Amino acid sequence: MTTPPQSGREPDTHVPAEALMTRFEAPEPGAADATDTTGKGKKASGQLRDIWRRYKRNKLAVVGLVVVAFLMILAILQPWITPYDPMEQNLLNTRKPPSDGHWFGTDVLGRDMFSAIIYGVRLAMIVGWSVMFLSLIVGLALGAVAGFRGGALDSLIMRVTDIVLAFPALIGAILVVQIFGNGIWQVVIALAILSWPTAARLMRGSTLSLRESEYVEAARSIGASDTRIVTRHILPNAIAPTLIYSFSHIGVAVVAMASLAFLGIGVPPDIPEWGTMIANAVPSLNVEGESHMWVFPSLAIVVTTLAFAFVADGLRDSIDPKLR
Amino acid sequence: MAKFITRRLAHAVLVIIAATFLIYLGLFVLGDPFASSGEKTVPPEIQEALREKFGMNQPFFMQYLTYLQNMFTFDFGIDFEQRRDVGDMLAAAVPATARLAVIAILIEIVIGLTAGVIAAVSQYTFRDVFITIITTLGIGIPVFVIGIGLRAGLSGEWIFPAVPRSFTVETPWWQEIILPAFTLAILDAAFIARLMRGSMLEVLRADYVRTARAKGLSERKVIGKHAFRNSVIPVVTYTGVSLGVLLGGALITETIFEYQGLGFLLVRAIQQHNNPVIVPIVVFAVLTFVVLSTLVDILYAYLDPRIRLH
Amino acid sequence: MARTDSTGSTPDFDLDGQAAPLLEIDDLRVHFKTDHGVVKAVDGVSWHVDEGETLAIVGESGSGKSVSAMSILGLVPTPPATFPSGDIRLRGRSILKMPEKQQRKLRGQEIAMIFQDPLTALNPVFKVGDQIAEMIRTHQDVTKTVARRRVLDLLGEVGIPNPGVRINQYPHEFSGGMRQRAMIAMALANDPKVLLADEPTTALDVTIQAQIMALLEKLRQERNTAIVLITHDLGLVASHADRINVMYAGRIVEAGSCDDVFYRPQHAYTFGLLSSLARMDKQRQDRLLPIKGVPPSLSKVPPGCPFHPRCQFATQGCVEAVPTLETVVTDETMNGGLHRAACIHSDQVEIAYSERLAP
Ligand SMILES: Nc1ncnc2c1ncn2[C@@H]1O[C@H](COP(=O)(O)OP(=O)(O)OP(=O)(O)O)[C@@H](O)[C@H]1O
Ligand SMILES: [Mg+2]
Q: Which residues form a coiled coil (chain B) (predicted)?
């Protein structure tokens, strides 16, 4: 299977990950004075402004950002926007093409497609962001510990990531769902389990290179504690590649859920989810007048993934202008 | 080099052992795989036969060994649905999947490399922008949307067979494979193009490319020999891993086109809780993936002499 | 001390082209368009070099030395670079105006370059021997075996022990000094008429530096090669160069024979460079005077003389106009036409320097 979840593994193949890591290896020379937090704060906001200035130049990324914001608003306001209850079936009015009453038509069970798709936005956002936060938190924590502590703990964490990454993404997700059973949160857990290892490895890589860097040495020499060194000096500087990866993983998680749902795995069949909707439309694929059943959910998912991909690209390019 | 290979192989073996153990734990221990669930009732005599076969009446560790032994002797038992020998089912599906994987990979390499090199050498021109947009779309659009689109638009037309198949008409294999292969190839071709563009751009800035130019080599040789050889390394890595994934079965694509490979088999088995089919396919998928990743690492070391030493 | 106006063109050869210099750069400008404005890396540079001659180009980091040399071989990427003006002539023929294919024939054949950083200048995935052989076979129609034999000779010639083994090794198996030698072997492979040596010894330790310089010296004597030696190292210049160009912020600020520039510097920047140098030939060391400040950003070159913000002699006049490179006429030297400087305080500079030199 070549599914987008697998492309989410990209930072794990040799070069991208290394490139990503080395780019953040060299800390700013000015950061060397570890005690001067005010100067650093100023510098950080200057960096942010720089990043935003570069980000703005990428028109697609700006469009992506607008679309992402719009999707978030839709997701939050969904209960007030949808004209129908997205779950409500009407077996007397199935597979109807778009009309005034049903802008996107109705599905096999007579549900309003428009309402279902907006509901799908909410679902996608919940799942996408949840997976991102879960894997980010776990990945950052374990990656930082592995990179900073080294030794047996490091080996243990890395071997665990090895084993998780030995599963092709979709297969791995299926396996976890098989074990935990069906349900949206089970899917979230499954996707998070599969995506934290890459985040952890990225984080470990940048932590490792920062650990030996001058300003961490400086902080250590003035007697800063390990916790303080990690939270104050390593995290802020090492976090960028991991953040970029995790953010780009939102779109991947959305597609992964839809893929599972399309295969009828994990996502309960009665929940209006884009992949499920498309799967339901498969028997109608070549039927005249029923294309709305797969076209609209397909568009929804394409718009969502592209928007997130544009934002992720923009972030990567603006945080690291060299790689354009 | 020999040391590197040995270490890498040992690592792969350990990972495979751990992964198969997890699969076993997940599917066998955490739930009774042979119990009836949902609408599916498993005939008691089959349940009993399978329990016997997988040694479910024995202590845990023995069970695991039996499971391993069965996997590696290609003795998978009988499937719940049609009571066929699972080994026979796999023997039919593996070649179909392998053929699909190899053809998809070939397509994506040709398209992806060409597009990536063209984009890199004509950076910032219209061609580059065009290729970048196309690759962004190719990466951004999920495989099943592409597949569904291709099936809705093309299946049953011209040389493309209709889906679902009509069993009265014999279709040559290449006609059956063409749409699924392109569906699979599109994402990866886009990805390869982007990877190649990025690494080529980086390599083109390298000092040794400047040296090659200073020798008076033609631009064609500079790009085609000096730059290409270096920038293709990450693509080789990616393609190898990708092949490792595809060989385990293209679940979505095979399902969309009802292509009779491992992926199609697996999806159906999952929907029907047909554990004797699920387990060997999952194990096989993990196996091919790990093996290919390992091979790729070794190949990488071969392609980049700097790695070879350690 | 008097000064005469010069026309700007090099006066030491006949304009009818009879005695056109081997390699000549004329009013070359190389500008980079970047996010932070136009970087004027090379801004109106002229020089020439003849057979058997060593021309040194010295200057601080970022003064445009490498860029000016690389533009001779067409190695400056466009974009971002533009060439607002200038010409480069080999034996009077303009290289820039030649079709690309002819230009390529010159590269590596007539003009070869040793690059600044030997660690990255060799392709990591090909064997060193093959990379040198490629240089030969690109320009000469010889078989692989002949090329290989030539490579073995070359490797021996540049002092690489065990050429038979080394020829089959990859760059990462070479030490820095060995890689530099390999680069030199590559540059010499086709007996070039001009050798552009960009800091050929910077990365190396002192003994190897001496060996490499001896190698270049031998080459110049035996094959009459013209060498353009780019370096920060004034000591190297003093012992190897015939003439010196001092570059600052993309321009030549002083040019002349080794003796002229070392003993009678006319530009405040040269003065600064020499004063910051420990001299072996003097018993009592003067206090070394480092040049204060940092080189200007080439996208924001100060108005007037680019050196004035760091200059101890600077006056209002230095800010108002860019000084032109003018011929220095002194009593001590016969070849007045060769010594030129772009400084309006050259008199003061010379006096100040002679005071430093005096015991
Ligand atoms: N491709 C490029 N794009 C933008 N600016 C460039 C490029 N190449 C060189 N420059 C700029 O041109 C200026 C001159 O560079 P150059 O390499 O010639 O300096 P140099 O005198 O050789 O210094 P060094 O002694 O450090 O080698 C520098 O400021 C450099 O930043
Ligand atoms: Mg230089």
A: none
Q: B83 to chain A, minimum CA–CA distance in Å? A: 22
Q: Are B180 and B168 in contact (CB under 8 A)?
A: no
The structure tokens listed for C64 are: 């445009």
Output the CA C66–ligand 1 centroid distance in Å.
Answer: 7
Does a structural domain hold residue C352?
Answer: yes
Instruction: Render pLDDT for B117-167 as a digit per residue (tens, 0 to 9).
Output: 999 988 888 898 899 889 888 888 888 888 888 887 777 677 767 777 766
Distance (Å, rounded) from C-alpha A23 to C-alpha A13? 16
Q: Where are the domains of chain A?
A: 71-82+128-323
Question: Could you confirm whether domain A71-82+128-323 is CATH 1.10.3720.10?
Answer: yes
C228 touches chain B (CB under 8 A): no
Mean of per-residue pLDDT scores for chain C:
81
Q: Is C85 a residue whose pLDDT tops 90?
A: no
Q: Is C328 contained in some domain?
A: yes
CA of C65, closest atom in ligand 1: 21
> What is the ipTM for the molecules in this complex?
0.83
Given the CA of residue C67, which atom of ligand 1 is nearest to it? Answer: 18
Contact criterion met (CB < 8 Å) for C125 and B309: no
Does residue B159 contact residue B175 with C-beta atoms inside 8 Å?
Answer: yes
- Give residue A167 CA to ligand 1 midpoint distance, Å: 48
C74: alpha, beta or left, given left = phi > 0 and alpha = psi -120 to 50?
left
Residues on chain B touching A309 (C-beta within 8 angstroms): 136, 139-140
Interface of C with B in 257-296 (CB under 8 A): none
pLDDT tens for C88-135 read 988 888 888 888 888 888 888 889 999 888 788 999 889 999 999 999
In-domain check, residue C192: no
Instruction: Decide if A320 contacts B164 (C-beta within 8 A).
Output: no
Structural domain boundaries enclosing C317: 268-359
Q: Is C42 in the pocket of ligand 1 (CB under 6 A)?
A: no
CA distance A312 to A304: 12
Identify all chain B residues contacting A294, using CB atoms and an 8 Å cutoff: 148, 152
